Each structure stands twice: as structure tokens, then as C-alpha cells.
């Protein structure tokens, strides 16, 4: 087992005092950055690159990589505690994490997320280490048509998240689709809905919308009842109940698989495995109505999935030199600035380097787990801070986060606007998660659809001539029919129930 | 009750301290490293320029009292996202400039509008020499593309530092091995050409080649060159005409082959690959990058910056970087750079309307 020997050699390098220190710094910064909504791992990595100039390349990358996967751990915290996702992927965690927090089980949610993240992250790094290159080949088979099919599948899954009212969910979904139209048309470069504003040329930034819809609206809503003194729920426990362990571990297992596979496909974002995992858990669960009210699998699955995604998303980078997401692109830039060219030759020319980094990722994940489990309890106590103290701090953090995206007040304004929209949406009981999810999905979907159409020269049936895209599209149609059928059945029995009364 | 108050107070203090630490981490974190002695070399937006400004003023007090430019830190606006080519180039040059100027040069990313947001910001800034910008070729393409009213005449030009020629790249198993074979095939079969976006420099390169050689193609835009190269490696599209650096790892992996480069000389990394001119097609299209200032900045400031940039561009670090990236280091100073930019603007103003993008 040649790889195993090299891995052990990597551990030797990674366990040096300096590298351990840098790893610690990296993951801590990553986690903290993940906690702050708006300030994502991408920005943090970019900011810290200059500091790494004087450092040894291995140490530099260890630190920067730490920021990257540490960020995934931190995003959970704000989602669970204050219903404000740190990044798009954490939106899913809000759905069941926040209800758990309201029941006083924030510690459980955070604990489960930490454990799941650790398992998902570690397993996907093992995958990266041993079967990475082989898998990268397979991932190349994903071209624009396959992408489109995958996005279509994701969109159908969003329908499954509609909650009680299909109509309201559809309103949210279409709102998201409309918002994603703003900006430059990907094919012709024509400006849509930009009203001559240069800031709108790139469309709305997903993070500002998310922070506004979830965070600001939460504050606005909370301000209504701020002066009522209610009983704040006690924070109990860190780990799930005995009977919850088994479904949790199963959810973690499925989440790992989903996340790992999603990461291989270059160009996807961490939102997709989280979304797929949540939908999967919901579909498989015996009692679907638990979801949205604090189902532990709804937190365990997605959180594991997005950490597993992080590990395997590095596979295209290491083996083919292709960055899968903006943060990884920055990591690629850092590699290059330190004189290393990621790609197939990296494993051959610089094996020490690669294995040291992989080893450090194992260590980093372990550090994060150790940090997060006890800290979860402490973080959970933040939920006890009285609103009139908490809200100004949240406002401050979200404004800073929004500003940091582009060093511009425009994003802050957009965030506030969406905060107000979100407030009204909450009043009208329109779910917000579909808005965010459809924006993410539809941008990718439109691009891949137009690309596919160009490649096929207008022949729509060509989608079914390619194995992967055909499978996914058929699957989407099946799921769609199923969901609509189930919804109709529910309505019928609900109506019947009403009549009985 | 008291316990709760203490706990709340503690949490508040922690959060505030954290924010303060976040703000100053840019200046304090770097003190342990690097040789350049610059303090605030990562412009965190949370920390306002007052942080690094106070550091710089301490430095200038310590250094010399002559009121020479630069007296405080200079902001380098990069109109594209961190991690990309523009950003990497700017950061390395900024570091080199710091060593020469003995003042911090802080990179600030202002993305959006295919560079429009950042470039507009530079245009509207004060021309006292403390805000400069990095511009890639896109500046000369903005107006022809209808993206904005930006054009070279609205800026002062300090120096160009890179030239990034386009290259014709196809999958390794494609049925053509030379440019002639490729053109022959392309004339008879409409190929799919990937690029980093509609109106991007690589799309324009493909269009220019198509016009010169007499073939049409189906243009498939991607969100950047990297996804286009990925699709090429998977065999989903036929050809890309992006930079050498972006296809280098694919070629080394044995998945892609390089047919030709759109420059005057052959690429030093691939000496066997001919230029399009050698094959008989008079096409020379390259991305390029250089530094600019708001209009009206005094000439002596421009000269000081040009000198600092020259030193940085000639450093070993930059040379190594460009070599690995498949870019060419090309230094053009002030007036020469401005002339070049103007001629590019003319060129694109004539070419782009014929591409039928609108």
C-alpha cells in the first residue's frame, strides 16, 4: 500500500509543531469566519494569502485549507441559533436546526452537526487520498447536459420542501427564479433588469439576499414581541437521545455519500448536497411531518453532506487542477503563488507536499471536532441572551458581513430591502428557503441549459441520449409526479377530515 | 439573575473583542512574517483605512520627514475576484512595490460588471496618487460591448506588466493535429467553441480567428475559463481558445493538445507549437494586464509608481509566477502603454460589432 506509506510520511510533516499551529490557526479562523454571516471562507482565504507569503508553502496551504473546511463547521452555528445562515449551504440547516434551538435543544443540534461534519469530512478526505484520481476521471463525464439534469433534479427536490402549502412554496420558488434573472444573460451578454446600475450587472448576491431574508426579517419579527417577557427555553444536553442515535447515524451515512459524490462534480456548490440530503431524509422518513419542527436527521444529514462535499471538492483541484468553487479557486491561486501547480503532475512531482496537506486535513477535522463539541454548549447559551442585546449585535455583524462582500454599501441596502420582504413573507407564511435555493439552482440551470442547447444545436431529445443526464431527468420526472400525487392525496384526506368534523 | 447578567456581559465583551480583533488582524497578524516590513498589507474591509493609516504614519514619522510621495498607504483596486489571474498578479506586484516604495500597497477587490465596478471606482477617485487600479484588457472592450462608457481616454496609464496570448486547444483525440487540419475541419463542420463568457477576450479571440480563417462556430459561454476547460477535457465541446496557463495542466495530464498560439513568438513553455501568424493567419490576440490611475494624476507620481512596478515586474518571484502560469512578462511604460491601450480600443471597437453579440 504505497499510498498508505506516503500518508504516514505526510503525517510526519503535518505533525510538526509549526504546522500544527498553522493548522489550528487556519481552522479557527475558518470557523469564526463561518459563524459571521456574509464573511465567507472565500474572503478570509483571500485576506490571509498575503500573510502566507513569507511562509513555507506547505504551512501556508495547510493554514488556508484549514480556513476552507473550517468555514463549513462555523456556518451551522448562526443558522441554528439565530436562524441566520452564514452561507447558502447553511440555509438548509435553519429549517430544522432553529426549531430545535427554540425547543432548547440547540446544543444537540450543534453537537450532532459537529459529529456529522467530522465523520463526513474525514471519510471524504480518505476518499481524496486513496481513490481520488480514479474518480476524477468519472467526474469529467459531467458536461453541461448532465449539469442541467442535476439542477432540474435539485429543483424538483425543492418542490418537496414546500411544507404545508404547495401554492405558497411555488410563489417562493418563482420569486427566486425571477430574482435570478437579474444580471447579464449568460449567452448573449444582454442586460436584464439592471436598470443601468453597474451593481446589478452581476445579479443579486446570494449571500446578501439570504442574510436579509432570514436574519434581518427575524430581527424585525422579533422586535414585535420583544417586550413580552416569555419563558426562555432551557438549554439541555449536547447529544441526541438514545433512541435518536440510530436514525442520526444513518442520516450521517447517507449525507457522507451524497456530499462526497457531489463534490466530485466540478462547478457545483455546497448547497446542492445539503439540499439533496435534506430532501432524501424527508422522503425516507417514516413520519414526514417531523421535518421543519426539529427533526434531528434534518440537521445531521445536510451538515455531514456539506463537509463531505468540501473534502471531495478538492479532488478535481488536486488531480486535474480545476477549482470547483470560488473558495477553491482562491486556494488554487495560493498554490500558484507559492510555486505549485495543481494538476495530475502534483501527485507525482510533489508527493510530500500533497500527502502532508491531506494529513493536515485529518488533523484539522479532529481539531474542529474537539473545539466544537464543548463550544457547542457555550454557543447554545447565546440563545439565552435577551433579544434587546442580541439583535443590535446581529445587526452589526450582518451589516459588516454584507459590506465585506464587495466593500460597498449597495449590498447592505439590498440586504435591508430583502429583510423587509422577508418580514412580509413571514407574515404571509410564505416559506423562504425555496427562494434562496431556487436562485442558486436556476443560475446554474439556465447556463447549462443554454450551453446544452448550443451543443445539441436545438435538439432537445439529445438529453436522453446521454446516460447520466437521461437517468437524472427521468428521476426528476418520477419524483415530481410522486410529490404532486402525495400532495393531492394529503389534501383529499385533510378535506375528508374537515368534513368529518 | 446576577449569573445571567455576568454571562451576557461576558458574551457581549467576547463578541466585541472578536470584532476588534477581526478588524486589526490585518495589521497585527503579518508582523510575524515577511521581509517587506509593511504593516497593513491585507485590507480587511472591517478595518477602515484608519488602522493601516495610523501604522503608515508612524512609519513615515520614523523614516523621513521629507514630504515625498508616497506618504501613506496606496490602495490598489482589483476589479475582479480574489484568487483569479488579475488578483494574483496584483498581489505579487503590490508586494514588490511595497519593498521599493517603503509604504504599504493594499489590494482591495471591487468586483462586478465584468470589471466595470472596480474600474468606475478608480475613474471617480481622487487623482492624488493614492488610489490606483489594475486593469486587464477588458477595459478596452467595455464600451464596444455596451457594458459601460469606460474607455482608455478616461485614465492615466502607469505600466503594463503581462501579456497573455490566446491559444487554440483541443482534446487529445481530436481528428486534427495542426492548425491547417483544424481550419479545414472547422470550415466544413460547425464546431462548438467554449469561452469564459459572451464578449470575453477569449470569445473575441475565437471570433477573430474565425474571421481570418473563414469558419463559423457555435459559441458556448462558461462562467470563466476553468469550467470551459473542464468541459473540453470531458469532450463536451470541441475547442477552447483561452490562455496557455489555463490549459497547461490539462495538456500535462495528456488530455488536451495545443494547436497554435495567437502571439508574435512561440510560447517558451511549448516551443513546438506554432503561432497563428506562422500558419498564415494574421491573428494576434492576447489578454494583458497593467496599472492605471485616475485622470489628471501628476506625471511625477506616475513615474514613481512606474519605477516601482518595473522593479516588481522584474523580480524573480514575478518571473517564476508568470512562467508557471504560461503568461508572458511584458513591461510597457506610461505613454507606450497608453498608446497600446488606445490601439486595442480601436481594434475592438471595429471587431466586436461584427460579432453580432447584441
From TrEMBL, chain B:
The lineage's top-level taxon is: Bacteria
Q: Where is the composition biased (Low complexity)?
A: 27-36, 43-60
Annotated region described as Disordered, given as residue ranges:
27-68
Q: Identify the keywords attached in UniProt to this record, alphabetized.
A: Signal
Signal peptide (UniProt feature, chain positions): 1-29
* Similarity-based family: Belongs to the UPF0065 (bug) family.
Q: What is this protein called?
A: Tripartite tricarboxylate transporter substrate binding protein
UniProt source species: Thermobacillus composti (strain DSM 18247 / JCM 13945 / KWC4)
